[in-house]
Design brief:
With 71 residues, the chain is mostly helical. The chain is 86% helix and 0% strand. Pfam families: DUF5326.
Length: 71
Amino acid sequence: MAVQGIVEGLPWWVKWIAVPVLVLVVFGSLIMSVLGWVIALAFKALLLVALIGGLIFVVKKFTSSSSKGDW
């Protein structure tokens, strides 16, 4: 609530342009590193799902075509 009182008398361009630009300048590298880490994690998770799905597909294809009643 104290922040709302401080920001209340400022012009609109300070609230909506200057403050976000300062936040990006100060924390930009941190934001980019966290965003890069999240994107890398999502890519690795999708790659893992695709590899497991491919492995299951290949195993089912070979086991169904090679021998049906040997077990």
